[in-house]
């Protein structure tokens, strides 16, 4: 007898089919000599109802082991279900209990807060909400690869351990093999990194962008999709210390091409997830945030607005709303400004371009006015910035000057400058936090609830 996933049975199973299912009991109830088990195997939001007749051999004895949380294998025949909301149920002929669960199992039939579920992250995937989150996360990850692979991009694996700070923000998690109880010291009591594993300071990467640029100079179009890290001491609903990033880099590409790709990617990702996880997305819209489906429709069916930073500032200065943070040319946009543009002013995604040179990273291409850089941020309703990117500075002399203005020693990035010495080309790319995207799609209120095992300040469980 073939073992089938519950999602397949609910979609395609017919009365009279013999089948086997394996999963975990969500609930149990007894009525008129029958027991009804709700079993879930993680493949769908819905459970499969198992009907166990009272004349089953040793019925009373096995019933004691069929408790919430227990793992079971059930063989039997599908029958039409008289219950509302389900087409078929499984009439059990053979039940095997693999692992029992007593009353201390933490996911008994009651509501649990997301805060509590984070303390039992090894169990929370069995809940309806987190199960739906991780199915959407899986579908979204598949869409990432499908989108870039269909367009001829090469998936490249950039280093997790690095010696450089791509963003220049200094929020780095150090990696060392030194004995922290007896750290070697040199002149002026500075740490002697020559005795460390790499012979120099090492960190967990904040971005694979610089290495992705290297690969783009050989393959044209590439993308990274992997973990990145920030030692940002922020306990908010928007920040993680470990998260995944999607970072495409395109040779022979300018800011216009970069914006086009970013827009195409978001539309593709949302459409793919809606097609792969319709029940889960309906669940989020009903139980978590009633704008989830409208947001997806807004992304998929609207052309993104495009506006310069200068024009965005002018629009914000004229806004009748009062903002907590000041609006002034030369200051970075805050989340409240970004959301105002996307939610109230344009009521759809907005791409803001050409930011002041002083507030952006050293690698962004300086514009002809020498006051702005060819940067872009994609702003979306309900979340604000979702994508950040730029055309990269391909001119050697300009890039060296920009490094010095950011107190970056050009000799430390000699290999990055080499890309401008030999066969330089215009190129562009962007970065997208994967968890931010999943949070945006699902309407979940806290980013720690869209990654299986969140890492945050003073949080390193599981």
TrEMBL record:
Query: What is the superkingdom listed in this entry's lineage?
Result: Bacteria
An example molecular function term from Gene Ontology annotations: asparagine-tRNA ligase activity
The cross-references to Gene3D superfamilies, in alphabetical order and at most eight, read: Bira Bifunctional Protein, Domain 2, Nucleic acid-binding proteins
Keywords assigned: Aminoacyl-tRNA synthetase, ATP-binding, Cytoplasm, Ligase, Nucleotide-binding, Protein biosynthesis
User: Matching Pfam families, A to Z?
Assistant: tRNA-synt_2, tRNA_anti-codon
Query: Catalytic activity, per the record?
Result: tRNA(Asn) + L-asparagine + ATP = L-asparaginyl-tRNA(Asn) + AMP + diphosphate + H(+)
> Which locations, inside or outside the cell, does it occupy?
Cytoplasm
Q: What is its EC number?
A: 6.1.1.22
Tell me how this protein assembles. Answer: Homodimer.
UniProt xrefs under HAMAP family: Asn_tRNA_synth
The Swiss-Prot or TrEMBL record describes its family as follows: Belongs to the class-II aminoacyl-tRNA synthetase family.
| Protein name per the record | Asparagine--tRNA ligase
Q: Which organism is it from?
A: Roseofilum casamattae BLCC-M143
């Amino acid at each position: 007898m073939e073992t089938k996933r519950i999602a397949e049975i609910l979609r395609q199973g017919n009365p009279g089919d013999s089948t086997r299912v394996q999963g975990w009991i969500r609930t149990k109830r007894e009525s008129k000599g029958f027991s009804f088990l709700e079993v879930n195997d993680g493949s769908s939001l819905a459970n499969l109802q198992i009907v166990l007749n009272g004349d089953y051999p040793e019925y009373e004895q096995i019933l004691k082991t069929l408790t919430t949380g227990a793992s079971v294998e059930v063989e039997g025949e599908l029958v039409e279900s008289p219950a509302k909301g389900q087409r078929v149920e499984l009439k059990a002929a053979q039940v095997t209990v693999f692992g029992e669960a007593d009353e201390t199992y933490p996911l008994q039939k009651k509501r649990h807060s997301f805060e509590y579920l984070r303390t039992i992250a090894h169990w929370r995937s069995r809940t309806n909400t987190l199960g739906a989150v991780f199915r959407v996360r899986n579908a979204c990850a598949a869409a990432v690869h499908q989108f870039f692979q269909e367009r001829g991009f090469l998936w490249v694996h950039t280093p997790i351990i690095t010696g450089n700070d791509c963003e220049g923000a200094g929020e780095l998690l150090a990696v060392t093999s030194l004995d922290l109880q007896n750290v070697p010291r040199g002149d002026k009591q500075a740490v002697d990194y020559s005795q460390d594993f790499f012979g120099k300071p090492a960190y967990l990467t904040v971005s694979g962008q610089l290495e992705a640029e290297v690969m783009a100079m050989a393959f044209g179009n590439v993308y990274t999709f992997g973990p990145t890290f920030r030692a940002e001491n922020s306990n908010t609903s928007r920040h993680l210390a470990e998260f995944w990033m999607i970072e495409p880099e395109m040779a022979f590409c300018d800011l216009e091409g970069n914006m086009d790709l970013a827009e195409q990617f978001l539309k593709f990702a949302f459409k793919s997830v809606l097609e792969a996880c319709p029940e889960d997305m309906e669940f989020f819209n009903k139980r978590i945030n009633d704008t989830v489906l409208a947001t997806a429709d807004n992304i998929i069916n609207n052309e993104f607005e495009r506006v310069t930073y200068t024009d965005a500032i002018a629009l914000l200065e004229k806004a009748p709303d009062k903002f907590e943070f000041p609006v002034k040319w030369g200051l970075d946009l805050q989340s409240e400004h970004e959301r105002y543009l996307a939610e109230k002013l344009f009521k759809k995604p907005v791409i803001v371009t050409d930011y002041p040179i002083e507030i952006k990273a050293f690698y962004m291409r300086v514009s002809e006015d020498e006051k702005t850089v060819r940067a872009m941020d994609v702003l979306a309703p309900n979340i604000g910035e979702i994508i950040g990117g730029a055309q990269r500075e391909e001119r050697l002399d300009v890039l060296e000057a920009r490094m010095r203005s950011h107190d970056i020693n050009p000799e430390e990035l000699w290999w990055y400058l080499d890309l401008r010495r030999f066969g330089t080309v215009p190129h562009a790319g962007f970065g997208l936090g994967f968890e931010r995207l999943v949070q945006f799609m699902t309407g979940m209120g806290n980013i720690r609830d869209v990654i299986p095992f969140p890492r945050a300040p003073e949080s390193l469980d599981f």
